[in-house]
């Protein structure tokens, strides 16, 4: 087994991007390489070829490796449903919903599944590049850890520690991490690197040398800010970097509190004829909005209440009265209906809430979860496209007689009688160039992008970027 683990001094220091770039760099060196993240916390999930789900970041990393996403690449996925509880997905399947304080009791059992998945990947590939979660400096969570040093020790994997200079205090980030960790974990660290530097990296030479001196760890380089990162699928809704455009079809996506699979928006952000706004909580719907998108949600009824608390229900109703369009995807589709019923309390307390009333459908939450890739045909344009379903619940009602799409000839989704409000359970539709072009053409906009080719080119550019600034050969040699 040959593996290397990238851990960070904190969340959002760029671990996912580094792993993707290193995976592409290793692949271009002729290695069979696979990504791995023992534990991820994200509501942005991807459906896998083996019929499960993993974090979207690991799906991107799989693409960098030239592989289809597999549940072994992210054996434990935590999907937050409330501020204190999350759904636990193990090797692609939901096993429980637990409160944060109870999760620690599950971790000893989860380690066996994590190591099982890791060993399968290791046996099938020359190299596995592992991504940590959060930070090993969270030593209060060290006992029973399966995400950082606990996994690294159990699997005997060397660690590279990544610091984020963009947020400031990177010397303290790295030296401080060493200071709080136990000696046995510090011995596991093979070196460090600095990420997200803006400007002339030589200006940090003294700081870099100080870190080497204080820690005794080898430095593997300083990676400048990668400006094309916004072209890759975002794992955090705050990272969707739509360019600021003054003109174009104004598409506004509501940033719900439990927003899920928000990378649905990424392809639209890259379209030159689209002005995408990710509307933050507290903001009013802009008066020049052309299309409102209600995205997926991990807690449909919870986000319905959140949406109403922002006053967005009134904004959307006024938008529709003015002739505007609305598209609901997955949980957003459920919200557009007359009611959402969760009799078994699957997503939270049992109960039934009124929907936004813009589609003549109602939704009942059920225990079975649909996870599948699909080939569909857009009913309005006749365009075929690829997508995927990842949801619980069934939606039925009169507007289902006007489907959004057909999947194997079966009606899917719903459209209002005037055609201006539509809902669908299908994620990933905008990644399909043909569908995106047909959908935009309905608003008089000509599509300009080829999304898949852009992502592939950006992964190559990321590998080139890391190769120019980091000791990639040394990093790969550190694997064992």
Automatic annotation (TrEMBL):
Q: Gene3D superfamilies this protein is in?
A: 3.40.50.880, P-loop containing nucleotide triphosphate hydrolases (3.40.50.300)
Q: Which SUPFAM superfamilies match?
A: Class I glutamine amidotransferase-like, P-loop containing nucleoside triphosphate hydrolases
Boundaries of every CobB/CobQ-like glutamine amidotransferase domain copy: 251-434
Domain CobQ/CobB/MinD/ParA nucleotide binding, residue spans: 4-236
Is-annotated flag, keyword Transferase? no
Its annotated pathway reads: Cofactor biosynthesis; adenosylcobalamin biosynthesis
**One Pfam annotation, family name?**
GATase_3
Q: Which UniProt keywords apply?
A: Cobalamin biosynthesis, Glutamine amidotransferase
Task: Tell me which domain of life the UniProt entry assigns to the organism this sequence originates from.
Answer: Bacteria
Where do the catalytic residues lie? 330, 427
Under PANTHER family, the record lists: COBYRIC ACID SYNTHASE, DETHIOBIOTIN SYNTHETASE
Q: What family name appears in the similarity comment? A: Belongs to the CobB/CobQ family. CobQ subfamily.
Its biological function?
Catalyzes amidations at positions B, D, E, and G on adenosylcobyrinic A,C-diamide. NH(2) groups are provided by glutamine, and one molecule of ATP is hydrogenolyzed for each amidation.
In Swiss-Prot or TrEMBL terms, this protein is called Cobyric acid synthase
């Amino acid at each position: 087994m040959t593996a290397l683990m990238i851990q960070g001094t904190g969340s959002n220091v760029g671990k996912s991007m580094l792993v993707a770039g290193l995976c592409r760099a290793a692949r271009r060196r002729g290695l069979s390489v696979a990504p791995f993240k023992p534990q991820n916390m994200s509501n942005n999930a991807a459906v896998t070829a083996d019929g499960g789900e993993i974090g979207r970041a690991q799906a991107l990393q799989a693409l960098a490796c030239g592989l289809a996403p597999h549940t072994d690449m992210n054996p434990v996925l935590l999907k937050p449903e409330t501020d204190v509880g999350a759904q636990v997905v193990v090797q692609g399947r939901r096993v429980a919903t637990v409160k944060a304080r109870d999760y620690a009791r599950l971790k000893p059992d989860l380690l066996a599944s994590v190591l099982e998945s890791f060993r399968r990947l290791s046996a099938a590939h020359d190299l596995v590049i592992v991504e940590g979660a959060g930070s090993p400096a969270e030593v209060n969570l060290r006992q029973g850890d399966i995400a950082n040093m606990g996994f690294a020790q159990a699997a005997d994997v060397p660690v590279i520690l990544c610091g984020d200079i963009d947020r400031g205090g990177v010397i303290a980030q790295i030296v401080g991490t060493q200071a709080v960790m136990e000696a046995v974990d510090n011995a596991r660290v093979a070196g460090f690197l600095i990420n997200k530097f803006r400007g002339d990296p030589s200006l940090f030479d003294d700081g870099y040398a100080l870190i080497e001196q204080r820690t005794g760890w080898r430095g593997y380089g300083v990676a400048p800010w990668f400006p094309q990162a916004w072209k890759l699928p975002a794992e955090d809704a705050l990272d969707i970097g739509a360019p600021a455009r003054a003109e174009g079809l104004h598409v506004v996506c509501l940033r719900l509190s439990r927003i899920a699979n928000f990378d649905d928006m990424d392809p639209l952000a890259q379209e030159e004829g689209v002005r995408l706004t990710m509307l933050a909580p507290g903001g009013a719907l802009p008066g020049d909005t052309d299309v409102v998108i209600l995205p997926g949600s991990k807690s449909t009824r919870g986000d319905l209440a959140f949406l109403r608390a922002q006053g967005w229900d009134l904004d959307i109703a006024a938008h529709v009265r003015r002739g505007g369009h609305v598209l609901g995807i997955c949980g957003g589709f459920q919200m557009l209906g007359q009611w959402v019923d969760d009799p078994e309390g699957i997503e939270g307390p049992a109960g039934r809430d009124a929907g936004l009333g813009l589609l003549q459908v109602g939704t009942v939450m059920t225990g079975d979860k649909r996870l599948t890739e699909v080939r569909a045909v857009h009913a309005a344009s006749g365009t075929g496209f690829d997508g995927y379903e990842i949801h619980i619940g069934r939606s039925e009602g009169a507007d289902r007689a006007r489907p959004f799409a057909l999947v194997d000839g079966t009606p899917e989704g719903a459209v209002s009688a005037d055609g201006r409000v539509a809902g669908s359970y299908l994620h990933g539709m905008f990644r399909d160039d043909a569908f995106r072009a047909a959908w935009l053409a309905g608003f008089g906009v000509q599509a300009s992008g080829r999304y898949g080719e852009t992502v592939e080119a950006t992964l190559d550019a990321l590998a080139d970027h890391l190769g120019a600034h980091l000791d990639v050969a040394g990093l790969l040699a550190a694997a064992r």
